[in-house]
Design brief:
This protein is α/β, with parallel strands linked by helices. It has a single domain, classed as Rossmann fold, CATH 3.40.50. 47% of the residues lie in helices and 17% in strands. The strands form two sheets. The protein has a five-stranded parallel β-sheet.
């Protein structure tokens, strides 16, 4: 029997991370945030003083970079060249740089290959922006999670404030809109729902309600 692979894609602020983590815990599957790999590369590029638009330099950097993701009860631990950078990859600067470096073919090729190793043959819930279309096109179940723009901005703002960062709703909405534009307009693996993905609008739903809906879908398809 093939391992259960659930792909959850969607834009920033749609609730992918929270839903994917809760779902993985409920189903006793591994959880992977594919975006963490791009953020790790973006952090290294920024720390090295490399322009995120310099394809050659970024490509060389990604080839010499070691990224490891480690599951923990508290979430996903991100290791960059042996250093724990979990708390450093969520800044607005890294977010924007990640959107830029993710457009580069060398980066996507390297990291998609890495992401495909994370199921370990035991099943995985992976969230990102091209999981159902590129990373796992044969995923057992594909979900495209979305929400209204105001709700997405409010959720992201709440996350930022919980981490002690100061930002306004207007600034957060702008950052999300900019990220959407970069994700949707990139030539390689643009953000889009897979043809066979189930679209779930989470605007008026709690994370647990979304998880319940996904589990119901998995049961209907006799995946569990």
């Amino acid at each position: 029997m093939q391992p259960l692979v659930i792909a959850i894609d969607g834009p920033a602020g749609a609730g992918k991370s929270t839903v994917a983590q809760k779902l993985a815990k409920r189903l006793n599957l591994a959880y992977v945030d594919s975006g963490a790999t791009y953020r790790a590369i973006a952090l290294k590029v920024l720390e090295c003083g490399i322009s995120s638009d310099d394809a050659a330099a970024v490509g060389s950097t990604v080839e010499s970079t070691d990224i490891r993701l480690q599951a923990q009860d508290s979430g996903l631990r991100v290791m960059l060249d042996g250093r724990d950078v979990t708390s450093f990859i969520r800044s607005p600067q890294v977010t924007l740089a990640a959107a830029k470096v993710s457009r580069l073919p060398q980066v996507r090729s390297k990291l998609v290959a890495l992401q495909r190793t994370f199921d370990r043959g035991h099943g995985v819930v992976m969230e990102g922006r091209d999981i159902g279309t590129v990373v796992f096109p044969e995923a057992s179940l594909k979900i495209f999670l979305t929400a209204g723009p105001e709700e997405r901005a409010q959720r992201r703002l709440s996350d930022e404030r919980e981490k002690g960062r100061t930002a306004s709703l207007q600034e957060t909405a702008y950052e999300i809109g900019r990220r959407d534009q970069l994700d949707e307009e990139r030539a390689i693996s643009p953000l889009t729902a897979a043809p066979d993905a189930i679209i779930i609008d989470s605007t008026s739903l709690t994370a647990d309600q979304v998880v319940d809906r996904i589990i119901a879908l998995a049961n209907e398809r006799k995946l569990l």
